[in-house]
Amino acid sequence: MPPRTAPNRGAGPPQRGRGGGSSYGGGSSHGSDRGGRGHVRSVIVKRPGYGQAGRALTVNVNAYQINIPEETIRHYDAISPESESVAFNIKVIKHLQTVVDVETFTPLAVYDGRKNMFAARDLPLGPSGSASYSFSLQPPNPNARRPPKVFDVKITKVATLNPQVLHEFLAGRQAADNAILTTIMALNVAIRMDVIFQYPTNSKSFFVPADKRDIGGGVELWRGYFQSVRPAANRMLINVDITTAMMYKSGPLLDVCMSFFELRDPRMLAPRNGFTPKMVRALAGFLQNLSVKAIHNNRNRTIKAVSKAGARDLTFDFDGQQMDVATYYQTQANRVLRWPDAVCVEVETGALIPIELCVVAEGKIMKKELFQDKTREMVDFARMRPADRFRDIRRGLDLLSFDRSPIVQHFGIELVSSDPLAIPARVLPTPPLNYHADSREKTVRPANGSWNMVDKKFYRPATIRKWVVIIYEIQHRFNRAAAERVVNDLRGAARARGMNVMMNQPTIKWCNGQGDIPRQFMEAGQECLAQEPGAGKEGPGLFIVILPNTAGDVYVATKHFGDITKGVPTQCMQATKCLRANDQYWNNILLKINPKLGGINSILDPENRGAAFLQEPTIIFGADVMHPPPHSTGIPSYASVVGSVDSHAVKYVAATRAQEGKKEEILGLREMCEHIFRKYKGYQSTVEKKSPQQASPKRLLFFRDGVSEGEFETVRDNEACRAAKFNPKITLIVVGKRHHYRYNPNDRNQADPKSGNCPAGMVVDQVITHPVDFDYYLLSHGGLIGTSRPAHYSVCLLSADSLQSLSFSLCHIFARATRSVSIPAPVYYAHLVCKRAKNHYDPRMGSDTASSSVGGRGNLQDLSERFRPLHENQAGNMYFMVRSSVDPIILVLKRLVGWAAVKMLSTS
């Protein structure tokens, strides 16, 4: 037998996939293709009408009309209890249909890889409508030590689906029910069966090797095509789009491993030659769950781990004597290893196989988090101008081969036209923004979602009383003159924006990024306090941190000194950017600093249609949940809610929690909403000087990036509002971006001349929208590169024009930019808070006996103990105005001084 690791070592039992579900839900965030996200019962209201505001135009959309079958579809349960993954399940059912019982399954039925099988005819399964099979995928081998694995499959008829009911739904005469959703799922399964047998697939996408790019690190990028049958008003559509996947580089596993580490000599993969335990762990994480072929016996195996020693140094008991792995393969498999000191891989059976005896087949999808240094290459490969994207989509439509697929023809699905739909759209009027009354240009109307800060002062500028500049770049690269220039330029730009800088000369301190960072901040604050003792005993109100280019870790440490800096905000900048900074750079920095200090950059013009809802006291919420990377364990999800506290809905406070890993519902929603209600009351009474009656909101708008059924009912039932003694009108809006509708201007004169995209403010609420429910697509930002992606809104209340204008207006109040953004600011803010939330979480705090399954329901108290709360001094400010791609400063503490230092800090 092959060499094996110790018993019970390695991964646990494989996870089973969820049972088959509909690809489209009547109460879902229609247009979101996230598995499991956004599916709710239809608390979304019927469409009240179509919008009329704005300039009309026509655009092409990557949707193609199909004729749905007239004949009934038969639905079967396909139960295979021993199956593992979707791909393997499909392989088992394909073998059943094409080898085991060809007569019964000709023409072929289609199968979703989980539990659902569909046929366009009655399968001859006998009077009970059920049949059981036992079979193996390989013929018996008399020389094998063990017989081949036997699979037990049971096929049972469960329903007959009448497409006529689907016609009624498309016409808006019937609400979505389980039969309709299952029929749509059957059509989706039918159109993907042919391509799933020919190409690598991932959910609703398939990928082709014709256009691929090797980006190093053992990874290739492949271009592919997304496909989904989607209902729309009075028609059924197929949505086809371009997508991208990371693939493992094909070829010898030895070459893949060398590419991962960018090595040229296979001997460097040997622990004897410096292949460290850290490198072993990195390689194991990269290869885990990768299916490879073992060339010594031509069998497929799944990698679960990587050995800590080379094949020559790994020994095991073989027939009562110790034998090393290299000798085993030489004597038992007649394979003399060329690199016997290189590590081995441990596969699902526990066997150890030298990496030089494994091969990676083409098209193995890598479902892991993207390497940080490969992000730019991924973006460059994926971006396409609209015209190019639509031209490539046509190639994908040809690969779907509607006119050549026997399965599609058997189900009666026909493509009406291979030309993309031309649909009506409107460009909404751009909302004007107001700045301070002393500005030379008090009101600005953005052009295609963009404007600038020239001749403008912040609507409510903040005051900088005392401040500190801490520099982590070495002094001969960033000397005293450079520091003085930064101070002068930043101070001058702040005053030009209307900010009051009371301390002309801040404390400037050079520090070592490898040193004791908490002590450095404390000492800098004490120097600032001593520098101007007559200005009061309060410490600094702002830390400016200047970092070298490679100081991401230091960047993350400066946001977490609540007990040391008393919640003082920080602003990090790169030294090289400071040295060549211009007015635009300083304006961009101040767009973040001003709201962090409690200021307001700009407001919507109260006379504008999009701000008309603010005539009543209103709170606007944004909520999001961020999950850990796929295949990760012991890591929680983070839920965040932000809410406006001012009358202009531009100043937001946040609440965030750690919760069960990969759970979409916000578990602490009520408590987080109550926290925001208290902040709203306090701001209204203390800052805006309103009476308790005036400070009671009359309307609540809740924007959610993906939503679960439980959340809708929590907010709808008004629990948090009742606890706060509020009784507002509640409007729920689900905002989704993970859909695949894209637009190409029908008339080039209507397109942005630089990017070729549709103009900012374009809204679509006809033809491709839901047959019954109130939804629309809004492209709120001006595209710069690639093809712009609209946001999809599913709504519960309000008229079409007012809500579309409101949504567009809220995309213009994102505080840290002078461009409109792709989703409303409160949703964007909630996403930023989620990004920062992982820096509040200390995995070493809390119960010593906590289960390693951090995300478990039984560990919620432990999660709360591990999660550090926001410092109260920052709870009322927009502390989350940071770059979303990097989160400020705790990584350096993790790396340099460990969590022991972090435990004495709360978050600023």
Protein described:
With 908 residues, the protein is an alpha+beta fold. The chain is 26% helix and 24% strand. Among the domains are: 251-361, paz domain, CATH 2.170.260.10; 457-601 and 841-852 and 862-908, Response regulator (Rossmann fold), CATH 3.40.50.2300. The chain is built from 22 helices and 39 strands. Helix 2 (163-170) packs across helix 3 and helix 10 packs across helix 15. The protein starts with 54 loop residues before the first strand and ends in a 6-residue tail after the last helix. This is Argonaute-like protein. Residues 1-38 are annotated as: Disordered. Residues 17-29 have a biased composition (Gly residues).
Fold blueprint:
Layout: E1 55-61, E2 63-67, E3 73-79, H1 86-100, E4 110-111, E5 116-119, E6 130-136, E7 150-161, H2 163-170, H3 178-198, E8 201-202, E9 205-216, E10 219-232, E11 235-248, E12 251-252, H4 253-261, H5 277-287, E13 291-294, E14 299-310, E15 315-318, E16 321-324, H6 325-332, E17 343-347, E18 352-354, E19 358-360, H7 375-382, H8 386-400, H9 406-410, E20 414-415, E21 421-427, E22 433-434, E23 443-444, E24 463-464, E25 467-471, H10 480-496, E26 500-501, E27 507-510, H11 517-531, E28 542-547, H12 552-555, H13 562-565, E29 570-574, H14 575-579, H15 583-596, E30 603-604, E31 618-626, E32 637-644, E33 652-659, H16 669-686, E34 699-704, H17 709-716, H18 719-723, E35 729-736, E36 743-745, E37 762-764, E38 775-779, E39 791-795, H19 800-810, H20 825-837, H21 860-866, H22 891-902
